[in-house]
Each structure stands twice: as structure tokens, then as C-alpha cells.
Design brief:
325 residues, alpha/beta, binds NADP nicotinamide-adenine-dinucleotide phosphate
Length: 325
Amino acid sequence: MILVVGATGQLGSLVVRELRGQGRQVRAMVRDPASAQDLAETGAELVTADLRRPETLDAALADVQAVVATANVVAPTRPGDTSDALDAGYRDLVARCTSRGVRRFVMASVPAGDLDGSVPVARTKRRLERLLGDSGLSFASLRLPPFTEVWLALVGSSLPLRDEQRPNLGRPYRFLRGFRRLTGSSVERHGVMIVPGTASARHAFISIHDVARLLAAAVDREAVSGAVDVGGPEVLSWTDVSAVFADVLGRRVRVVSVPGAVFAAAQRVLAPVAPSVSDIMGLDRLMASMRTDWDTAEVAARLGVGGLRTVEQVLREKAALETVG
Ligand SMILES: NC(=O)c1ccc[n+]([C@@H]2O[C@H](COP(=O)([O-])OP(=O)(O)OC[C@H]3O[C@@H](n4cnc5c(N)ncnc54)[C@H](OP(=O)(O)O)[C@@H]3O)[C@@H](O)[C@H]2O)c1
């Protein structure tokens, strides 16, 4: 049995579907089963549990050999969904995995860098990686670049979200909803892409569907172990991405870049009054500082996953959906 922690998320639900598609026994950990019928329909077992309620975790872990963890609080939906509470929950989960003899723990992570201590999402990942390293569990932490379907939407396009189920940008979190209303289709409408950091920053953008395949593969491929960088099939700058958008949409697209210092200031100012929004500013600050110009084809090959999709492939597939639908 494989437990997916964060199963109602955009990536988490794709991991459930991927593993079920392989015929694996999957338990989807959810906080509200009534909202997870689509996951039950895949044949996954639902268990009601919450990282913030340690008393629920033993039932979730019964007969579990492997855990895939994607749960995060970037777009929190419940009061008290803070990164500190999440960290405490993960600490408890790892302790229980160790005492119950869980064989393997796989997690979705972010690249390591100078902001690890000051950006909550990165701090959470580093803490969890350290806990796993100290636990003696066999684990793989896939440190991932920006997801094509998420970040190409965040910079101002609705195209990447087309046909995506459970998009995290659609979660009922007020700040994100307001932000999307303002900027959600600025690429299509005004030919403007608003990016964190410089337009020349280069990333190995990866499709979230490919990430789900990689995480599912890491459950069995224990040769991939510890924290590893994994990216998509090509490295593009934001300027390159704007050119792909321009080709696909048939219109000029320019990049407007917001310096990391703006996000750092917003993170600091908002921390006492709107902590979750401050965390999002931290995430943008991280993104502005990050470069993921990696060639990780060898890691994907070791995981046995090929055919990773380029940004252009993803956007062209999405654009074709419009003409069909
Ligand atoms: N987006 C990127 O470009 C990028 C890049 C690198 C790495 N990553 C990582 O990839 C993953 C993305 O996951 P995603 O798309 O599935 O996220 P998501 O759509 O934002 O979903 C968040 C998930 O976490 C769950 N969760 C939050 N608090 C919980 C708790 N206390 N107990 C149990 N579950 C809890 C949520 O449950 P509810 O639905 O009940 O709230 C939901 O299932 C994250 O780990 C992220 O850090 C993302």
C-alpha cells in the first residue's frame, strides 16, 4: 500500500492517478473525503487524516510500505495551516513511518539555495530532508524546478490551466483568487508576462504530469536516493518562454520583471499582518533568486522515466484543446 500525503492537491492527485494507472494499491490521505470522490473513483482508498492531527496518522499508515508526500501550505485553505504546523506534522509522520517500518519515503521538494532559512516553503523542505536523512528511512527528495502548468499560469496566462484538474491556483484561498482575477490572462489580453526576477533567469521547466510520473517511479527505484535535482527536458529563460507563448498565441509577448527585492520587502512587511501572503511573497522571492539551468536527463533515466514534455509541447497541447472543445 502506498500512502499519498497531499492527495487532494494538483500534484498529489496526479500521483494518485499515476499509481492507480499502474495498478498499485493507493491510499489517498484527505482531510475532507466528501470533496475527494474523484480520487475514490480511481480505485484509491480514502483515509481521513491530517498532518496537524497526529492521532489520525497511525490509521493512515496501517500496512503502508511507501509514502509519497506533496502536502504543502502555499495556498492554505484552513485556519492554522501554517508552515510551522506543517513541519510539526511532517516530524510526527516521519517518526511514525520509522517506528512502523515503512520501506520508502518520496517527497516533492524545491531546489536548495541561499534563501533556505528565510523562505518558509524552502525551510520546510530542508527540515523534512534532514529528518528523513536522520531517520534511516530509504528516501528520495526530488528537488524540482518551476512546474510549467503552474508558473506559466502565475506569470499571467490561463492557457496552462486548461484541462488541469484540482489546480492549486484554483484553491479557495482569497489572495490567490484576487491575484488571478487581476493578472490571470495578461499574456493573452495584453501580451505581458510578469515574472519574478530577471527575464534572463533560466529554468529546466517541467510538466506537473511528468513530475507525478517521476515521483511514482521513485517509490521503487531505490537507486535514486537522498536529495536529487530533477528537471524538464530543456532549459529556457523567461524571454525564451515569452517567445514560445508568442508563437503559440500568434501575438507579441513581452516580459516585465519584478526584482526579488520587491518580494523581499513585501515578505517582511506582510509577515506580522498577513502571514500566508507573506509566505507567497517569499516564494516569489525564492523564484526570483533561483536558477535551475540543469541537465538532469541522467536522473530521469535512472528513474526509468522518458518522454518529458517541453514547454512548447505543453502549451501547444493546451492551445489545441480550445479548438477541439
Ligand atoms: N509549483 C511548482 O512549481 C513547484 C516546484 C517545485 C516543487 N513543488 C512542490 O510540489 C508540490 C505541489 O503539490 P500540489 O500541487 O499537490 O499542492 P496543492 O495543490 O497546493 O495542494 C496542497 C495539498 O496539501 C494538503 N495539505 C495541506 N495541509 C495539510 C495537512 N495539515 N494535512 C494533510 N494535508 C495537507 C492539501 O490538503 P487540503 O486540500 O485538505 O487543503 C492539499 O492536498 C509541493 O510539495 C510543492 O512544494 C512545486
